[in-house]
Amino acid sequence: MPELPEVETTVRSLNRLVGGLKIVDVWSNYNSPFHKAKRNIKNPRYFREFKKQIVGKKILAAKRRAKNILINLQSGQTILVHMKMSGHFLYGVFKQTAAGWTADKLIRKNDPFSRFIRLLFKLSNGKHLAFSDLRKFAKVFALPTKSIASHPDIKKLGPEPLAKNFSFKKFIDCLLKKPNGKIKQVLMSQEIISGIGNIYSDEILWSAGIHPLSKVGKTPRPPLQKAWAATKTILKKSISLSGDSASDFRGINGRKGGFQNCHRAYRETGKKCRKKGCAGVIAKIKLGGRSAHFCPVHQKYYD
Ligand SMILES: [Zn+2]
Fold first, then answer.
1. Is 44 a known active-site residue?
2. Residues 86-130 pLDDT 10s
3. From CA 104, how far away is CA 99, in angstroms rounded?
4. pLDDT bucket at 176, cuts 50 / 70 / 90
5. Fewer C-beta neighbours within 10 Å, C or N terminus of the chain?
6. CA 270, CA 262: separation in Å to the nearest integer?
7. What is the CA(220)–ligand 1 centre distance, in A?
8. How far is the CA of 292 from the centre of ligand 1 (A)?
């Protein structure tokens, strides 16, 4: 699932490429019976309403809140997109064929993750902003810009870890809302801190030397301070590399990000730990239906 750096990468590209353009038309074939009566474009009835709200409107700017993309329109409406498991935007020229929308040469046609166009915006410059979503889990709807902060999906979110005022004290205050929680799960909890998921929690804890199952309230301050610093460094590094494409995330140009080449723990199971002087081998354990990857030697367990 795209996490903070992948969503931030997408938002920056949207601002660069589609900011100032008008939405001329919108198409979707999401159409799912499971979304009947929901305010989500997968409900065909809602999609018609969505279309009326956004067609003819100019895109002002895209913003990010946690893992949500917020596309502000001049009309005072905002399109909220949560990419969920496999969604990503692609910008270029697409052609509609019997098999669906296919991209021009700018976007790699053979990339299996970029072939599932479920939503497509036609733009005033003749190009398209398409949305590929292999697993069809994404969430897309429009809402008045002024009501974003009070929307249930946004209101519940914890602070942004890259905000300047996200101090070590704030980090500790957030984590200690769940003193008995396992630190990996608490880091990934969007109500505690926003934007961190499976990849970055593994990398942050490897860097800080904390076992993923450690109890938050029992973990001493020095390793927590390392985790706070690592959160900022690792997320920023991934943004500078245009995100992580270990899974299906692609940039808006269809290209992969680069952070998957920097993993020290995530999906490194069986490999020698790369911490200097550490003789550990990266292990994998199950944790609440997800996997945690860690080094059993230098990552200490606090309980
Ligand atoms: Zn190690």
1. no
2. 899 999 999 888 878 888 765 666 677 778 899 999 999 999 999
3. 15
4. very high
5. C
6. 16
7. 19
8. 14
